[in-house]
Amino acid sequence: MTFLVDLLAATLRSATPLVYGTVGETYAERSGVLNLGIEGTMYAGAFFGFAVALTTGSNEAGLLAAIGVGLLAGALMGLLTVTLGTNQHVAGIGLTLGLIGVSEYVNRLYFGSAEGLKRIEPWPLLEPLGPGSVLSQYALTYVAFLLLVPIAWWVLMRTSFGLAVRAVGENPEAADAAGISVARTRYAALMIGGALMAVGGAFFTLAALGSFTLDIIAGRGWVCIALVIFGRWGIGRATLGALLFAAIFSLQLRLRILPGWDIVPFELLLALPYLAVIAALAISGRNVAYPGAYLKPYRRS
Amino acid sequence: MSAAVWRLGGSVGRLGGAVGFPLLVLAATFVVTTPFILMAGVDPLAAYAEFLVKPLTTRFGLLEVLTSAIPLLFTGAAVALAFRAGYWNIGAEGQLLLGAAAAAGVGMAVGGLPPVVAIPLVVLAGAVAGLLWALVPALLRVRLGIDEVVTTLLLNPVALLLVEGLLNGPWRDPVTQFPESQPIAASAEFPLLMERSRLHLGFAIALALIALTWYVVARTPTGLRLRAVGLSPQGARFAGIPVARVLLGAALVSGAMAGIGGASEVAGIQDRLTGGISSGAGYTGIVVATLGGLSMPGVVLVALLLGDLSVGASSAGRALGIPSQVGDVVQASVLLVTVALLAMRRYGIGPWRARGGPAAGIEAAAAISPAAAVADLTDSTAGDDSTAGDGTPDGDDTPDGDDTPAGDDTPAGDGTPTGDDTPDRDEPRR
Predict the structure, then answer these.
(1) Could you give the 3-state DSSP secondary structure of residue B29?
(2) Min distance A291 CA to chain B CA atoms (Å)
(3) Which of A60, B14, B93, B302 would suit a FRET pair with A266, their CA atoms being 20 to 30 Å apart?
(4) Among B290, B288, B126, B297, which Cα is nearest to B211's?
(5) What residues of A are in contact with residue B36 (Cβ under 8 Å)?
């Protein structure tokens, strides 16, 4: 029983950053922009959130800083792909390399001394039912599942802004003709998405770990990209995908410490969730309908 | 976007086009990165002199530049080849790691063999491992239409875990207990090309491979098919080209090249497998390929430039006390600045604003596209490419004969997509 409770709690916990990232990426892609900057944006969110929390002593300030960095990253992606119409794959990879580079550079510059790992006091778990229950989670996890997912769904599917996002991602010419600013809508989607990705990254440093380590995101941004496809650009299905990945991730963490499993190298188990995502894509990702204007810059003719 | 998009402007790697363009890129990169350099309390001009000029002033520095360009030559060529075919191999990092692991495995086992046998075996092991690592995403793409961007990306962390698994497990050095493999056999080590340097056989292998790739891509029917698929898979299919086979071939050769890059780092530099064997060369390969305009001469030029930067950045770390990660910042800035300036030139924005008439840029791809299958990711913009160049107002997009196999990759073409590269004209002749 405790094993199951533990597993469920861990699943919700490790799904949290993926939910932020996946929702953020869904917004970007629904507006027609593939944002491969997600890995770097999560990384920069993790680092700058941590750096500001460390220097100010306030995790809230850290979270705000992460959001700021995410907005900036989204705006930069917008400048490159929306205003300038550069290739989205290259802009995204470049953004990721740049944000990781800047994070590691600043980290080395200010915190790189030999005094060992810097730590902050991470946010505590909220424990409405006392310790050790499924509901023992960080506030950011509650926000992700109870606020972000329903609100993000509602905004995307039920508001005029969400309609605009979907319209510019599906058929920008028609949206433009209907009086929607394609550029402004895509910038908004990218910046909202960037902020969410950065919060997802900051979850690691401000809540789960309380410290910043190199390679802290470890490809989870790429996982989010896959989950968006797995979710067919829907918020709900993508969230399910995030839970699935997190469940496998949490399961392998627990399997490791069970007797008999120690003969399996833990790296193999760690690789399992990534392989599961690829398998899930192979099974369900065939011939999915991409947003109509996916990867296409828009310019009035 | 189709591969042709990359070829759109005299990129850093192209000698043709305006000589001023690379200077503009350098100036803009300097401006963008100055705040970061100032953060370290270092004079930006001194820093750039250290990054770019200093390594070239000594024999040792020059040879180090060549040495650190080696993995970038492999991965840059690998990525450029795949992108040229419109196959988005973003997994060169993983392919390089697998190649390194396999080369180390074989290298440790060939102790009794003479170098003429051992070295080719090590290289072959790297190639095969890289190829196999590229096989799964390639098959998923051509058989099931699964986006290779995602799958190749996701396999990178898996490859790293695999290497770490080997190093923490069966291959851990029993003497030191470090997570490093034991050294490979001495007979499997790449010989040095120059005394008192680290420049090894890998450099020659890389250049030979790049020359061969250049020849195949630019001068053979196979290369023509590859470029046709990259420009427009639909058009190529219409012309009877087996698109799936071409994509598969490009993906596998690309993986093999990256894998040899891994083997070269093992047999040429480290003499063993280490967790940090790649240092991101797979991702940097994307930078190299893009800045090189997806052309092989461009790849060589940019790999050398980034080799210079990386040697310079680490020496600046010692000389000026600036973290060597500044090299990564500069490198990413160069990439973003270049693609931004290319787009501005192409669409007539900023300094390239049209003197007369509006900047006619892309007609955003034909209104509604049948974006159902992944294949369309690369298809859909082919229409763009054929129209885009026409509108650039600066007149540097005169037809340059870029579509004749012979003219390709020559510095003459500045690569602006003039629309004369469309497969409709290319394939029927074959």
Answers:
(1) helix
(2) 7
(3) B93
(4) B297
(5) 102, 105
Assess contact for B50 and B56: CB atoms under 8 A. no
Q: How many angstroms separate the CA of residue A141 from the nearest CA in chain B?
A: 25
- CA distance to partner chain A, nearest, from residue B196 (Å): 32
Q: In angstroms, what separates the C-alpha of A136 from chain B's closest C-alpha?
A: 30
> For residues B426 and B218, what is the distance between their CA atoms, to the nearest angstrom?
13
Give strand pairing partners of A126: A137
Cβ pair B430, B225 in contact under 8 A: yes
Q: Under an 8 A CB cutoff, do B377 and A294 touch?
A: yes
Length of chain B: 430
Asked if ipTM goes beyond 0.90, one says yes
- Its pTM stands at 0.86
**C-alpha distances in Å from residue B424, one per residue of B7, B238, B294, B430:** 18, 9, 21, 11
pLDDT digits (tens, 9 = 90+) for A28-40: 999 999 999 999 9
Residue of B nearest to A266 (CA): B165
Q: What are phi and psi of A116, to 5 degrees?
A: 90, -175
Cβ contact A17:A200 at 8 Å:
yes
pLDDT at B421 (0 to 100): 36
C-beta separation of A25 from A197 below 8 A: yes
Mean pLDDT of chain A: 93
Comparing A300 with B247, the larger pLDDT belongs to B247
Task: Select the residue of B88, B328, B364 nearest A172 (Cβ to Cβ).
Answer: B364
With CA atoms as reference, the chain B residue closest to A171 would be: B368
Residue B339 has its nearest CB partner, among A87, A106, A292, at A87
What contacts B335, CB < 8 A, 6 or more positions away?
A: A90, A94, A97, A98, B287, B290, B291
In degrees rounded to 5, what are phi and psi of residue B160?
A: -65, -40
Q: Residue B384: which of B404, B367, B359 has the closest Cα?
A: B367
- A143 by DSSP, 3-state: which? helix
Tens-digit pLDDT profile for residues A179-195: 999 999 999 999 999 99
Exposed / middle / buried, residue A258 (Cβ in 10 Å: 0-12, 13-18, 19+) = exposed
| pLDDT tens-place string over residues B141-162 | 999 999 999 999 999 999 999 9
For residue A96, give both structure tokens: 């990721």
Q: Which two tokens stand for residue A181?
A: 């600013």
Q: What is the mean pLDDT of residues A261-276?
A: 86
- Tell me what the mean pLDDT of segment B372-396 comes to: 34
Chain A contact set for B347 (CB, 8 A) = 84-85, 299
Contact A278 B88 (CB under 8 A): no
Is B274 in a helix, a strand, or coil? strand
Q: Which residues of B99-112 are buried (b: 16+ CB within 10 A; e: fewer)?
A: bbbbbbbbbbbbee
Tokens of A7: 């597993």
Estimate to the nearest angstrom the gap between the alpha carbon of B112 and the chain centroid.
Answer: 36
Give A298's contacts in chain B (Cβ within 8 Å).
364
**Is residue B37 within 8 Å of B326, Cβ to Cβ?**
yes
Region A153-172: what's the mean pLDDT?
A: 97
Secondary structure (DSSP) of A234-293: -HHHHHHHHHHHHHHHHHHHHHTTSTTGGGS-HHHHHHHHHHHHHHHHHHH-TT----TT
The pLDDT assigned to A114 comes to 57
Cross-chain CB nearest to A281 (options B40, B146, B342): B146
